[in-house]
Amino acid sequence: MKIAGAGLLCALIALGGFATTAVAKTKRTAWVVVDNQTGEDILSLTINHKYSDEYKNSYTFDKVLKHQRKSKKVEVEYNTGAFTTGKDWWRVSWVQMDGTPRLFYSDPQNLRGFVDFMEGAGDYLIPAAFAAAGAAAGTACTGATGGACAPAGIAATAGAIAAGQALSNKMMNDESTKGFKQHILRKADEGKTVTITLYRRRKGSEIVIKSPSGTSRTKYSYEDVELTGKQKDLLDDLTAEQEQKLQTAKDVRVNRRGQYDYALIIDCYAGVKNGGSANTLTASFHNSAGEQIGEGSVVPQMEKGRCYRFAMYANVADGSTPAKVRLTTDGQDAVMVDKITVYNSRGLPISSSGSDNKSGWCLSTDPSDSQGSWKRHVYQGVCQPSVEFDIDS
To answer: Tell me, what's the pLDDT at 131?
Structure first.
């Protein structure tokens, strides 16, 4: 009886050791790449991968992915083991210029909740999303067309990119796998590449997910992103800001040709409306003795009620080196100066004052212009006819 008991104990220990080995799960990784075979350039691309609720991998690429090119490889995590129950779920979305910017997304279950999502997106599509998307859209749109897009095109593209990122964030934070395609990774896929190919064919469009262990297929859909209310206002701001940024870049290039000794790029946005002016703003350059050695002037223009950036140019007396620049207005239509950057004749920045925030210098011959909606944005709480800045030579 004792011998049999000992044998049984040994058997149980052995069985326990076998069970421990069998159920042990192993964490593994694989690489993922997207192959664009849609016939059009992709302006922004997002890949989402979930391994049940244990691992979540999300990547967004804001560089243009040309037709018949592949994205860079990114890493995803998963588990394998005899008794692991997790599964791999995949989602991909992208923005293309198909006449107008369109958001495409993998749609294995005919996900028709997209419009409802957009209507209830709320804070998903407000300033932070547009700020990031605006920069991405400017780069992507320019890269896709070989030249600067029209501001309206950039704004619309930014809206599509922001919508795609917002939808991605929402779906990754949701434990549901609705809208995701299942493609299970196995031991054979460890360290290997999973290729997600996007096809647009005459007889139908599909996404093919292929790894060493197998192949999965799913369809995709698209939406023309339409924004309303606050979202449209934000895009209007983006349109105007992008237009003035593009113009600023041209202004700096002008100065690189040596047409002027100095260029001033003035950031006139400090969170207020009507930051531009109908009056003339003059920039006078002074040497260390206080003598004026040159000047330039401009009437700061606005786009859609906003002033973002404008340029001024000046030549100085031969052999003179400016130590200060003084900005002066000739009227009561206030202009806001958030930041001023001085460029030399080679188009290189040599001095900067102020910062990109919601407070700036108010220039006006009427001190009371600092009141009302401008009050909390005006530096030192008062408008003045001129302000002076040092130049670091």
So the answer is: 46
**pLDDT for res 112:** 47
Residue owning tokens 């890269």: 143
Q: Are residues 271 and 341 in the same domain?
A: yes
CA distance 227 to 220: 22
- Transcribe 341-385 into DSSP letters: EEE-TTS-EEEEEE-SSS-BEEE-S-GGGGSGGGGGGBGGG--BS
Helix boundaries (H) for 82-126: 114-119
Distance CA 319, CA 307 (A): 35
Residue 112 placed within a domain:
yes
Which pLDDT score is estimated for 330? 92
Same domain, 96 and 153: yes
The SS3 of residue 293 is: strand
- State in Å, rounded, how far the first CA of the chain is from the last one: 99
Q: Which residues pair with 33 in a beta bridge?
A: 195
Contact between residue 386 and residue 364 where contact means Cβ atoms under 8 Å apart: no
Neighbours of 262 (CB within 10 A): 23
216 with 88, same domain? yes
* Closest CA relative to residue 197, chosen from 58, 109, 70, 66: 70
- Res 3: pLDDT: 43
Q: What is the largest CA-CA distance in the chain?
A: 113
Give yes or no: residues 103 and 219 share one domain.
Answer: yes
In angstroms, rounded to a whole number, what is the distance separating the alpha carbons of residues 268 and 154? 21
Q: Per-block average pLDDT, block size 10, for the chain (393 residues)?
A: 46 44 77 94 89 90 87 96 86 79 79 48 42 51 48 58 73 80 95 96 83 95 66 56 57 58 82 75 92 89 68 84 93 88 83 84 90 86 93 77
Indicate whether this model's pTM tops 0.70: no
* 3-class DSSP assignment, residue 119: helix
Instruction: Output the domain CATH number for residue 306.
Output: 2.60.60.20
CA distances from 165 to 59, 114, 136, 357 (A): 10, 13, 12, 26
List, as one string, the DSSP characters of 208-232: EEEETTEEEEE-EEEEE----THHH
379, 346 contact by CB (below 8 A): no
